[in-house]
Design goal:
The complex is a heterodimer of chains A (229) and B (299). By secondary structure, chain A is an all-alpha fold. Chain A has eleven helices and no strands. The longest helix of chain A has 32 residues, at 40-71. Chain B is mainly β and 299 residues long. The chains are: A mainly alpha (229), B mainly beta (299).
Chain lengths: 229, 299
């Protein structure tokens, strides 16, 4: 990758990126509330489930499809992957969170860049023709910045895990060293799910984490909560 | 890809020969077709065709709703065997109301080669309603089962579709000993895809009891309440309130594209998951049809 592409990927992977990561916990808040996650080991096991069962078989498959479609300038194919990802994301809060972060990244990038593909996709999101999920926006943005698809997938996993670790630090008494240790120990999982996602088809995404869905449903109705999901 | 493999995960199995009756031979490729139409008397089963292992003994006047009709699918066999390919099509005409279930659990037998598959196509006409609530699927040790279900809704149509999986003969201590289970449920409407859900379990390769997957639970079920013309946020809240009162760990969430609500339930026994989902079904049916759900009793 060129220096510009590498720097772009650093920028997109940084928790400094203003996409509202600090507002989402993807059900983690409820797992902690329910005493299902009480320490670093429990957190790592749950994050591993998220990567293997949700991010890998759904988000990354959609990201790959969006990346390939954006490279070809095929807006219809981007939207197809986008709609498909929403259709397989059954937890309502997760769809909302993914669309909110996607919307923020999309408006940020359309301000920064002058790219026809990005503008045309943003128009479709504005007119509600397509949901604008974060993973799909990220696929488009990375493709247009010449970030290779494998790096884009790894970036997505890294961003997801650091986002949830940030949430965990506010919900659990999790130290910085523990957070870094989890991030470090999940590296092989991230590599594995990125590898496996290469075989996934947009028409056959199979995310499967029913207990996450049930706790997300409880979170939707929780009276006191810090996070939007 | 082998011609017979509908999913890449099953490609290897499809190349294995079946030593008993071959794939596609009589008794292996059961077909069931049911068509319900609205008539002056209410709902009538106007077409039915069943080959082994499916059997139909007419309809039952069993529904609390007088204009509804009921069919219980029977099987003269001990369950689903390796090499079985089942094909079920159920069509509910405009304004008709039908309830289709099975008489007892679907037992997927142990396998040494190949796999078994069931393809179910449901379609509901304008203003019609279908309850497709079969008894649970029990996965015996070493079984490989692929289940694909699609439900298509015309404008104004509603449906309740339920799926419960029991990962073994629990009473004899068998759990998560099957090889592969993939169940896909796909909903479509006049504008195309509404939602898709997949349950993919390969206990040997990936721990089904991992946190966030099934956790400490064994039995898992989902009821889809499909009602694209209804306020799904309100229905979701109401169904969630109903199921959190019950024994299983359950929750309701609004489906994508305004399709309706998904209710997921996890438990230790089939009965608790079924009774929780039945409570959701009962509430949904009262909302949609102004009549309670039929009782689950079949004997």
């Amino acid at each position: 990758m060129s220096d510009a592409a590498t720097l772009e990927s650093f920028r997109l992977a940084d928790s400094f990126l203003p996409v509202g990561t600090y507002t989402v916990s993807y059900g983690l808040e409820q797992f902690i509330q329910d005493d299902r996650v009480e320490d670093a080991a429990g957190l790592e096991a749950l994050l591993s489930t998220y990567l293997r069962r949700q991010v890998g078989p759904a988000e990354l498959v959609a990201l790959r499809a969006a990346h390939a479609a954006a490279t070809d300038g095929d807006i219809d194919a981007i939207c197809r992957a986008d709609r498909r990802l929403s259709a397989v994301t059954l937890a309502a809060e997760f769809r909302e969170s993914a669309q909110q972060s996607g919307d923020r990244l999309l408006s940020l990038q359309t301000d920064l860049r002058d790219e026809t593909t990005l503008d045309r996709y943003a128009e479709r999101v504005d007119t509600d023709e397509t949901p604008g999920n974060y993973a799909v926006v990220l696929g488009v943005v990375t493709a247009l910045a010449d970030v290779a698809v494998r790096e884009a997938c790894l970036l997505c996993c890294h961003g997801f895990v650091t986002g949830l670790l940030g949430a965990a630090q506010r919900l659990l008494s999790l130290g910085h060293t523990d957070a870094q240790r989890i991030l470090d120990e999940l590296q092989p999982v991230m590599t594995a799910v990125v590898e496996e996602s290469a075989d996934g088809a947009v028409d056959a995404m199979t995310p499967f984490a029913p207990l996450v869905d049930v706790l997300a449903a409880e979170h939707e109705r929780a009276e006191r909560r810090l996070f939007a999901s | 890809m082998a011609a017979d493999a509908p999913h890449p995960a099953f490609e290897g199995y499809a190349t294995e020969a079946v030593p008993q009756a071959a794939v596609g031979s009589p008794g292996k490729d059961g077909v069931l077709e049911l068509t319900f139409e609205r008539t002056a008397e209410g709902t009538t089963l106007v077409h039915d065709y069943a080959t082994v292992p499916f059997h139909i003994s007419g309809t039952l006047g069993y529904d609390p709703l007088p204009e509804a009709d009921t069919v219980f699918i029977q099987s003269p066999t001990g369950g689903v065997a390796q090499g079985d390919r089942h094909d079920v099509s159920i069509t509910v005409g405009d304004e008709a109301v039908a309830h289709v279930s099975t008489q007892s659990s679907t037992k997927v037998q142990s396998m040494t080669c190949n796999y078994a598959a069931a393809d179910t196509t449901l379609s509901v006409g304008a203003g019609g309603h279908l309850d497709y609530v079969p008894e649970p699927t029990i996965l015996h040790a070493d079984s490989r089962y692929l289940q694909e279900l699609t439900v298509d809704l015309a404008p104004g149509a509603t449906a309740v579709v339920s799926d419960v999986v029991v990962p073994g003969r629990l009473a004899r201590g068998e759990r998560f000993e099957f090889e592969r289970y993939l169940s896909r449920v796909c909903g479509t409407g006049p504008d195309g895809l509404l939602f898709e859900d997949a349950t993919h379990l390969t206990p040997e390769e990936e721990d089904p009891t991992a946190p966030g997957v099934l956790g400490e639970f064994t039995v898992y079920g989902t009821t889809f309440v499909l009602a694209p013309d209804h306020d799904e946020a309100r229905l979701s809240d109401a169904l969630h309130a109903v199921v959190t009162e019950s024994e299983a760990r359950a929750g309701a969430t609004a489906l994508p594209n305004g399709a309706g609500v998904a209710v997921r339930a996890l438990g230790d026994r089939a009965e608790t998951v079924q009774s929780t989902l039945h409570a959701a079904w009962d509430h949904a049916r009262t909302e949609l049809l102004d009549a309670p759900a039929p009782s689950g009793r079949k004997y």
